[in-house]
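User: Please fill in residues for this 536-position structure.
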C-alpha cells in the first residue's frame, strides 16, 4: 500500500486510540453520572421508535423507570422486532436504520443476529475498539510504523451461511466504506490482508495458510487472534504446514503461484530448525515476535500458559477486549491480566447475581453496586436498539478502577439449561483447583452432564497414565464437593455418580476446530465451548 496512505491511517488510529483511552480513564471515577447520561441518550434518540412507543420510553427519566418499562430479554426474544425490520418497516428498534447485522455463533453456539447502526458504531463500539487498541500501541508501538508488524488472524472476508444471510463479524466490517478509515485496525493494512484474486475461492483454512505464508516474508512483532481457539490452532497448524511453507519460501511462490524471488537461505535455515526441534514455532518464523492478543479467561485461562510457550520463549499475552455481539463490555487496562474496566460511558449496564434466576423481572444492580469476588449475569442497553438485553455472559468482579468495576468473563449461562447442578464458572473453578492440586496442566476440556452424573473430557498437557487421570478425577470430585452445595447434596444421597474424567489427546479439540473451519466457518466463529456434547 502507499506509504502516505499508511501514514494517514496511523496518524488517525493513534489520535483516536489516545482520545478514547483518555475518555475511559476519565470516566471511571463517576460511574453513576456516566450511566445516567447513557440512559438519557438512549431514550432521547430512540424514544419515538416502534419499540419506544410500545414501552413508553419517552416517559423514562431514570433507571428505575427504565426497569419498570422494559423487561429483560435475550437476543432471541428481540426476533419479533427484527422480523419487522426484515419486512421493511423503519424506526423499529432505533431512530437510524441498521447498516448491517452482526452474526455470531456465541460461546454456547446459539446463532445471534444483532443490528448495527451508525449511532451504535459512533457511541458504543468504536470508543471501545479504539480504547482497546491503545493498549496494543502501548505494548508494540512498531505497529504504527509499518503495516506488516502485526498479523491479524481475526480478520477474514465475509462468508454466507446456510440461511442465505452473510455471517458478519466486527472484523469483517468495511470501516473505510463507512467513513471510519482509522478503524480499519492494526494489521489489516498488510499486503496479506487482501489476497490475490486467484485465491478468491479458497476455503477459510487455506486462506489462513496463504496469509501465514505471506507474513513469513516479514518481521511480525504481534499476532492478533482475539479468539483463543485461533491462537491455539496456529502452532498446531504450523506442524502440518511447515514443509509446504519452507518449500514455497525456496520457490518464491504463494499457493503454488510465483510471487517473490526464491529465498533459499531462509528456507534452509527453517528446514534445519524444524529438523532439530521437530516443529516450527511462530517465534521461529518471526524471531522478534513478542505479543499475542487474545482472550485469556474462560477455558483459555486453563491453557494460556502452555499456549504461550508453544509460540516462543519471549512472547507475552495482552488480553483482548471483552464483549459480545450484543455490545462492548470491558477494556483491559492492566498488562498480564484477563479482566478489564467497564465501558460505562458507552453502554448502560445492569447485573443480576449469577446464583439467581435470570428472568424478565429480575432485580438488577448498577455497576457501582457490585462487589469484588462476586459473579453476575450481564444485562445491557445501548443506542443501537438493544434494551435490557441479557447477553447470558457471566462475569466476576476482580476489582475497581476508580469507582468502576473491573470484570472478567468466567462463563456462559445457556438459554436452555443443560445442567441444574453445575454452572460453567463452577466447573472451570473446580478444574483449575484440580490442576493446582495435582500439578497437572490442561490443554482443553469439555463437559457432559446426564441424570447419572458428569463427565469431563480433558486434553492434558502431555501423556498421562491411568493413575494420573484417576488422581485428577479424585481432585476434581473433591473440588466440586467443596465448592457446590447442590452437588455435595446430590452425591450424599446417591442421586448422581462421582465425576468421571476421560483423557483425550489435544488433537481431538484441534481436529474439531479444523473440521468446522474446513467446512466453511470463519475462524473467529469457532470458539472454545465448555459444553460441547458431541466432542470425543
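Assistant: Residues filled in for all 536 positions:
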Amino acid at each position: 500500500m502507499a506509504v502516505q496512505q499508511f501514514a494517514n491511517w496511523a496518524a488517525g488510529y493513534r489520535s483516536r486510540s489516545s482520545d478514547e483511552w483518555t475518555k475511559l480513564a476519565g470516566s471511571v471515577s463517576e460511574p453513576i453520572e456516566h450511566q445516567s447520561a447513557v440512559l438519557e441518550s438512549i431514550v432521547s434518540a430512540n424514544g419515538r421508535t416502534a419499540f419506544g412507543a410500545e414501552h413508553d420510553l419517552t416517559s423514562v427519566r431514570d433507571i428505575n423507570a427504565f426497569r419498570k418499562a422494559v423487561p429483560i430479554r435475550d437476543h432471541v426474544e428481540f426476533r419479533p422486532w427484527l422480523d419487522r425490520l426484515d419486512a421493511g418497516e423503519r424506526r423499529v428498534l432505533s431512530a437510524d436504520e441498521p447498516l448491517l447485522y452482526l452474526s455470531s455463533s456465541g460461546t454456547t453456539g446459539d446463532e445471534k443476529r444483532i443490528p448495527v447502526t451508525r449511532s451504535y458504531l459512533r457511541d458504543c463500539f468504536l470508543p471501545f475498539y479504539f480504547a482497546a487498541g491503545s493498549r496494543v500501541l502501548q505494548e508494540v508501538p512498531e505497529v504504527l510504523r509499518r503495516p506488516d508488524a502485526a498479523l491479524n488472524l481475526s480478520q477474514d472476508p465475509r462468508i454466507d451461511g446456510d440461511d442465505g444471510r452473510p455471517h458478519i463479524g466486527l472484523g469483517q466490517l468495511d470501516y473505510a466504506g463507512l467513513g471510519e478509515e482509522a478503524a480499519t485496525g492494526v494489521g489489516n493494512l498488510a499486503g496479506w490482508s487482501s489476497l490475490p484474486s486467484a485465491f478468491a475461492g479458497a476455503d477459510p483454512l487455506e486462506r489462513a495458510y496463504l496469509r501465514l505464508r505471506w507474513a513469513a516474508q516479514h518481521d511480525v512483532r504481534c499476532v492478533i487472534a482475539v479468539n483463543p481457539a485461533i491462537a491455539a490452532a496456529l502452532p498446531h497448524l504450523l506442524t502440518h504446514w511447515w514443509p509446504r511453507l519452507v518449500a514455497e519460501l525456496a520457490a518464491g511462490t504463494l499457493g503454488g503461484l510465483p510471487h517473490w524471488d526464491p529465498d533459499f537461505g531462509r528456507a534452509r535455515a527453517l528446514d534445519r530448525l524444524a529438523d532439530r526441534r521437530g516443529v516450527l514455532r511462530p517465534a521461529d518464523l518471526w524471531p522478534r515476535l513478542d505479543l499475542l492478543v487474545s482472550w485469556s479467561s474462560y477455558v483459555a485461562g486453563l491453557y494460556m500458559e502452555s499456549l504461550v510457550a508453544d509460540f516462543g520463549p519471549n512472547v507475552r499475552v495482552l488480553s483482548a477486549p471483552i464483549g459480545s455481539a450484543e455490545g462492548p463490555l470491558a477494556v483491559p487496562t492492566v498488562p498480564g491480566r484477563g479482566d478489564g474496566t467497564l465501558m460505562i460511558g458507552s453502554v448502560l449496564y445492569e447485573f443480576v447475581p449469577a446464583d439467581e434466576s435470570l428472568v424478565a423481572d429480575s432485580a438488577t444492580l448498577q455497576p457501582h453496586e457490585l462487589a469484588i469476588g462476586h459473579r453476575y449475569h450481564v444485562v445491557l442497553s445501548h443506542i443501537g436498539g438493544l434494551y435490557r438485553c441479557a447477553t447470558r455472559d457471566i462475569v466476576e468482579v476482580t476489582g475497581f478502577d476508580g469507582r468502576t468495576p473491573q470484570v472478567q468473563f468466567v462463563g456462559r449461562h445457556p438459554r436452555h439449561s443443560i445442567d441444574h447442578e453445575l454452572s460453567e464458572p463452577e466447573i472451570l473453578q473446580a478444574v483449575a483447583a484440580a490442576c493446582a492440586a495435582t500439578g497437572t496442566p490442561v490443554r482443553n476440556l469439555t463437559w457432559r452432564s446426564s441424570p447419572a452424573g458428569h463427565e469431563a473430557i480433558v486434553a492434558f498437557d502431555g501423556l498421562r497414565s491411568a493413575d494420573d487421570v484417576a488422581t485428577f478425577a479424585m481432585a476434581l470430585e473433591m473440588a466440586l464437593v467443596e465448592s457446590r452445595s447442590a452437588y455435595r447434596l446430590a452425591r450424599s444421597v446417591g442421586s448422581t455418580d462421582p465425576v468421571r474424567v476421560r483423557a483425550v489427546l489435544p488433537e481431538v479439540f484441534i481436529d474439531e476446530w479444523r473440521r468446522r473451519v474446513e467446512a466453511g466457518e470463519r475462524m473467529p466463529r469457532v470458539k472454545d465451548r465448555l459444553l460441547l456434547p458431541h466432542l470425543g
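For context: Residues 158-165 have pLDDT under 50 and may be disordered.
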